Amino acid sequence: MGARTNSPHRRRIEVPLTAMAIAHPPILSRCREVLAGGPTEAARRWKGPAIGCFPVYSPVEIFHAAGALPIGIFGAGGSVELTHADARFQSFVCSIAKSTLELAFQKRLEGIGGMVFHSICDVARNLASVYRRNFPDLFIDYIHFPQNPTSSGSLDYTSAELERVRRNISVWLERKITDDALRESIRAYNRSRALMRRLYQMREESPERVNSVEAYQLVRAGTLLPPQEHVELLEAALADLERRAVKRMDRIRVIVEGAFCEQPPMGLIEVIERAGCYVIDDDFVAGWRWFANDVAETGDPIRALAGAYCRQSRPSSVRHDMTRPRHEDLAKRVREKNAQAVIFAPAKFCEPALFDYVLFRRVCEREKIPHLLLEFEEKMWTFERARNEIETFAESLLFE
After folding, report:
1. Ramachandran area for residue 253 (φ above 0: left; ψ -120 to 50: alpha; else beta)
2. What pTM value is reported for the model?
3. Pick from 80, 207, 227, 297: CA 20 to 30 A from residue 104's CA?
4. CB 358 within 8 A of CB 225
């Protein structure tokens, strides 16, 4: 949908995010502290084995049940110069693959003894091999998730693959991963995911109560914390947010889609909201919110995780479910969440997201859903152009 650029009512829509700080600042300060420390500090605090999990989804319950801390690895976020990784990859691959490799070359993954990759795209598949070749002392595993999770054999196949991962982790750490320990880890992560679902429900129902940067930091901190600590942080934050005195602003309700793997710069998330949008849903940090509801806490835990992946996971550009076409799911979410528009925010050179955009755009045009495309990359440091585009887009809907 075209946005008006010469409206006589054109004005800058901006509310300083500092005016919307969480009622109990130490909670958000704790999130920022955790994120600033990154994977190395997370591993140091844990004082035990740690395993890096490349986006999007990893069976973190298995690692946690083995006594290891699963740590989300989302690239370097523009904090490192690529001095080694460029020589291992083509120039046209996504930033997150190269900067994730660069972190290891620059010894910024100290304390992390292993890395797990999975079949989200060709780049992730190659990154696992490159890691194994360049860092032979690291434990490296690659998970082959089913291409068609709705097929009759997908549950058995996924169970066998997760069981193989459990055996490999057990051999690496020289400890048995019992079913009881795995069920306990499933319960811990179920609690964390349930609280994140509650946070997102709050954003949908009262987006003025929690801004996008706050929500993102609260969720992203969970990729660097044990689940029990993340639960405590979320419980405290949600209690404060529910007591917050708020006033709804003149903004449009949007869904942000396409950032399921490489995460957008924090500045871009902030700009989207400052420019006149309430973000009521997104696919940020998708791997830690992978399941739509709780994983079964009784019975065979490996079978429960496999069933959750095949039957309870959210639609994603890297998980194809022919019974729930991803583009149709987006249109359904727009209707159910009373969204007014969609902002597509794929990372540059992200083939799964850019391929999906063709289908997304088609369904948005068919359903007359206003939409805007904003590509980003890790080293994006100026947001003025994005800000102008979003402001014009938001105003075209507010003042039409």
Report:
1. beta
2. 0.91
3. 227
4. no
User: Which string of DSSP letters, residue by residue, matches 100-165?
Assistant: HHHHHHTT-STT--EEEEESS-HHHHHHHHHHHHH-TTSEEEEE---S-TTSTTHHHHHHHHHHHH
Question: Tens digit of pLDDT for each residue in 131-155?
Answer: 999 999 999 999 999 988 989 999 9
Residue in this structure with the two tokens 């529910």, named with its chain if needed: 242
Token pair 């079978």: residue:
303
Q: How far apart are CA 358 and CA 172, in angstroms?
A: 43
Structure tokens at 363: 């369904």
In this structure, the number of other CB atoms found within 10 A of the CB of residue 115 comes to: 25
Question: What domains, with CATH codes, occur in the chain?
Answer: 17-398 (3.40.50.11900)
Q: Are 246 and 61 in contact (CB under 8 A)?
A: no
- Give the model confidence (pLDDT) of 146-204 as tens digits: 988 989 999 999 999 999 999 999 999 999 999 999 999 999 999 999 999 999 999 99
Q: Which residues contact 304 (CB under 8 A, 6 or more apart)?
A: 186, 295, 296, 297, 298
Spell 172-183 as b/e; 16+ CB within 10 A means b: bbeeebeeebbb
